[in-house]
UniProtKB/TrEMBL annotation:
Record's protein name: 4-coumarate--CoA ligase
Record-linked CDD domains: 4CL
Residue ranges of every copy of the AMP-dependent synthetase/ligase domain listed in the record: 69-428
InterPro entries for the chain: AMP-bd_C, AMP-bd_C_sf, AMP-binding_CS, AMP-dep_synth/lig_dom, ANL_N_sf, EF_Hand_1_Ca_BS
Domain AMP-binding enzyme C-terminal: 479-554
Species whose genome carries this gene: Clitoria ternatea (Butterfly pea)
GO molecular function terms noted in the UniProt entry: ATP binding; CoA-ligase activity
UniProt superkingdom: Eukaryota
Transmembrane segments: 120-142, 261-287
């Protein structure tokens, strides 16, 4: 279903429903079992319906005009103080788009692979790629050459743009490459900076017909089954979510706000928030190449940052270490957190330490193109510390019995299903996974266990899917198990999450080793570390006689989790 069709079906469901009396609080319709967002978008936040509108054109249309665009700063690099105004950013996008289209012959539908840490060029690259109808796929610079090669192959990338320091990971793939920076180029490869300079007088974007229903990006997520999959997102998905971000900023921010971006832009959180969405709001964003606690604190002080989109480990770090520094954080007004659950205890400690700062938790997935729930007010966030907010406009939800498929009323726990025009189109080349995740009516099975209370606040209790959340990243046990089983001395293996105060969770491996071998815990850890990104590394290993499995051969992870807890208690 297209975004417009999904929105029409949501509106039809809402208009036809004869909501019971208590629906004004929860948004729940007992006849259909559907929860509706309690917030309607106003006229100024209406979703554009023009079918041939692409993401880049939409974002650029929201920029300040004329002299205001030249005076208004869009991005500042926290390490170099280099800045770019909205006017300069627009011209850079025009220039790079012209160079990609006319010079490098990037065509509509071509997949462009972007491998780079955060930079003030990141948005320019994304908007230029999207403006010519090409498809953007982003990757984590921490990924190994092997992981990069898999994504290049799976996405069918035709072209790549990379930071110079990551070039060696892409060369073996054989795809044509340009660098982000000319300063670090050896002259053998073109750079984004050189292409922008060479076409700097381009008066407009290349004329390419791109429909909202066309694919805009392929972002990689572990999905609901633990296997890495390409989430196919359309221009309509991005346009809807950016309109919703504009709405959320309108109810909680102002044009003189300063945001700090250390959330990686290759991730849907960073891409939608910093790479695209905040440009529609017209605020200033300070860019950090990657997270560093001291660097973050200094940036807040120096640039008078008042909005900090973050993740739970960062909130925990602020609670533990901010008071030990001499940085002035009085400018902070709001901290948002997502990508993983924030514990009530950490939230309470944060509010004690920073009573003047609003702390708001949200919830979303790559498959929803970003956020699905949001706290409109800090008062609500304080009153519902276990919640991740209410459904944002255009969203509706069901809480479904995992065994029967029956929808539940408020306070009953089940799998959270979501429906919105922001929901992904499909998993790339994976019909089986798509069917398992999206039903014929456009409902997304999130794989998360939760409930919605009588006031419409969403509570995510735990993950049904077998993913490990480490520092906001998703780690798939199946991927690590595959690596472990490639070792000649490992007979069987299973990976489970272990709770960790600093990072949320860490991967722990249970390993069955070959008879009479002397394989050590450190050897196993190093073997895995050499093949995966740092955040995926196995942190603990326990040797076991057999891996517990069901009759169907499925690993009984709950048994291993219980065993690991017993082992930890025994050591205390």
């Amino acid at each position: 279903m297209s975004g417009e069709e999904v929105w029409s079906s949501i509106e039809e469901e809402y208009s036809k429903s004869q909501l019971p009396f208590d629906s004004s609080r929860s948004g729940y319709n007992s006849r259909t079992g559907i929860y509706h967002s309690l917030v309607k978008l106003g006229t100024m936040h209406e979703i554009p319906t023009k079918p041939d509108l692409n993401t880049a054109t939409f974002v650029l249309s929201q920029f300040p005009q004329a002299d205001l665009a030249e005076a208004k700063i869009a991005f500042i690099d926290s390490s170099t103080d280099r800045s770019i105004s909205y006017g300069e950013l627009r011209r850079s996008v025009y220039s790079l788009a012209s160079a990609l289209f006319h010079g490098l012959e990037i065509k509509k539908g071509d997949v462009v692979f972007l491998l780079s840490p955060n930079s003030i060029l990141y948005s320019t690259i994304c908007l230029a790629v999207l403006s010519v109808g090409a498809v953007l796929t982003t990757a984590n610079p921490l990924n190994t050459a092997s992981e990069i090669a898999k994504q290049v192959k799976d996405s069918c990338a035709k072209f790549a743009i990379t930071a110079p320091e990551e070039l060696h990971k892409l060369v073996p793939t054989g795809v044509p490459i340009i660098l982000t920076s000319a300063a670090q180029s050896d002259g053998k490869l073109l750079s984004v900076e050189e292409l922008i300079e060479g076409c700097y007088n381009s008066p407009e974007l290349p004329q390419v017909t791109v429909a909202q229903s066309d694919t805009a990006a392929i972002l990689y997520s572990s999905g609901t089954t633990g296997i890495s999959k390409g989430v196919v997102l359309t221009h309509a998905n991005f346009i809807y979510i950016m309109r919703l971000l504009f709405w959320s900023a309108d109810v909680s921010a102002s044009l003189d706000d300063v945001f700090l971006a250390f959330i990686p832009m290759f991730h849907v959180y960073g891409l939608v928030f910093f790479g695209l969405g905040l440009l529609c709001v017209g605020v200033k964003t300070i860019i950090m190449q990657k997270f560093d606690l001291q660097g973050m604190l200094l940036a807040i002080q120096r640039h008078k940052v008042n909005n900090l989109p973050a993740v739970p480990p960062v909130v925990l770090a602020l609670v533990k270490y901010a008071s030990k520094t001499k940085c002035d954080l009085s400018s902070l007004r709001r901290v948002g957190t997502g990508a993983a659950p924030l514990s009530k205890e950490v939230a309470q400690e944060f509010r004690k330490m920073f009573p003047w700062v609003e702390l708001r938790q949200g919830y979303g997935l790559t498959e929803t193109c970003g956020g699905a729930t949001f706290f409109v007010s800090d008062k609500d966030a304080k009153a519902h510390p276990d919640s991740c907010g209410r459904l944002i406009p255009t969203f509706c939800a069901k809480v479904v019995d995992i065994d029967t498929g029956k929808p539940f009323p408020p306070r009953k726990q089940g799998e959270l299903w979501l429906k919105s025009p922001t929901i992904m189109k499909e998993y790339l080349g994976n019909l089986e996974a798509t069917i398992a995740t999206l039903d014929s009516e456009g409902w997304l099975r999130t794989g998360d266990l939760g409930y919605i209370d009588e006031d419409g606040f969403v509570h995510v209790v735990e993950r049904i899917k077998e993913l490990i959340k480490h520092n906001g990243y998703q780690v798939a046990p199946a991927e690590l198990e595959s690596v472990l089983l490639s070792h000649s001395l490992i007979v069987d293996a299973a990976v489970i999450p272990i709770e960790d105060e600093e990072t949320g969770q860490i991967p722990m491996a249970y390993v069955v080793k070959a008879a009479n071998c002397e394989l050590s815990e450190d050897q196993v850890i190093q073997f895995v570390a050499a093949q995966v990104a740092p955040y995926k590394k196995v942190r603990r290993v326990s040797f076991i006689g057999t891996i517990p499995r069901s009759a169907a051969g499925k690993i009984l992870r709950k048994d291993l989790v219980s065993q690991s807890k017993y082992q930890l208690v025994s050591k205390l």
